[in-house]
Amino acid sequence: MCGAKAGGPDLAGVDVANETIIQGSVTRDGEPVNGYVRLLDAGGEFTAEVPTSATGQFRFFAAPGSWTVRALVPGATVDRKVVASQGALTEVPIAV
Amino acid sequence: MSRSDVLVDADWVQAHLDDPKVVVVEVDEDTSAYDKNHIKNAVRIDWKKDLQDPVRRDFVDQAGFEALLSAKGIANDDTVVLYGGNNNWFASYAFWYFKLYGHGDVRLLDGGRKKWELDSRDLVDGSEVPDRAATAYKAQAQNSAIRAFRDDVVAAIGNKNLVDVRSPDEFSGRLLAPAHLPQEQSQRPGHVPSARNIPWSKNANDDGTFKSDDELRALYAQEGVDLAQDTIAYCRIGERSALTWFVLHELLGQQNVKNYDGSWTEYGSLVGVPIEIGA
Prior knowledge:
The complex is a heterodimer of chains A (96) and B (279).
Chain A: E1 20-28, E2 31-32, E3 36-40, E4 46-51, E5 57-62, E6 65-73, E7 76-84, E8 89-95
Chain B: H1 3-6, E1 7-8, H2 10-15, E2 22-26, H3 33-36, E3 37-38, E4 43-44, H4 62-72, E5 79-83, H5 85-100, E6 105-109, H6 112-118, E7 124-125, E8 147-148, H7 150-156, E9 161-164, H8 168-172, E10 196-197, H9 213-222, E11 231-234, H10 240-251, E12 257-260, H11 263-267
Parallel strand pairs in B: 1-6, 2-4, 2-5, 5-6, 8-12, 9-10, 9-11, 11-12
Antiparallel strand pairs in B: 3-7
């Protein structure tokens, strides 16, 4: 697969109203990057980590509040602070 | 026993890729990751399909483990090196499981798949599968000294070390599962009363490698865990706590540590047991 897709993965089958979703994609010069994305809580503690998909996408099911999304890719680490709420999609595009 | 007996780095694995007595085994939370690519000559063990009884909630029995390892071409005197994604969660679980059935020489690849990938080391295509001749593997009876059951946990409340290795939000009851999974779960949120919350991630660096023995010892001392006392580690399904078990039992050499594989999906569903919520 090639080419980055904007936004998070497909939401088919996901109970969006009852989940607190943080999702997005990791790109370098518009191309998807294979790597890992880690979710840290308001205290900076690890909460979850996922590999990016072939199209650079990732998704977390969190709780309402403040989070840090950290992309770990070969040669770079990038943090993004977000505030998530239930029933809403928090989209986090990360360019490295 | 020393750290190098149970933990190897990527250079060591690279140097032993073609050693027939070293079997590299991928055990991943995402059991399809192997199909995409894997370390050369690695075989796959599927933690769901291969390691769990297909009907009851329990492990495959001794004969089942023997059949599995025989079919994978793993002999009793082989050195088994486990690695996987998600910071070796399921590779640690498999390590504990191999020890449960008494395998002699089993080690973890420090940092697992993530460190290997972040270092841009070679992976072969998923279709390239090694051809290992079947063996006649003999397992030992389960070693009950390293596995805790629900009654052990209830009995430990207030008088043994209970280490809850989940994230602070799972410990407090704010989340029911690690945040890469949907949060709809049947069990009650919270933790076992008197458990200390020492997330598994405090054992590891961002790249998934383990911290030094001195740092690890300092971590448990700071958190007020007296390792001279018996310890039970748990998480949600026993894989992250297997990583903490590996740290305490294998790296720090504490023999009185058990992993509770029933973990929160069992405890949080029990009728009548005490639960605490909040930090």
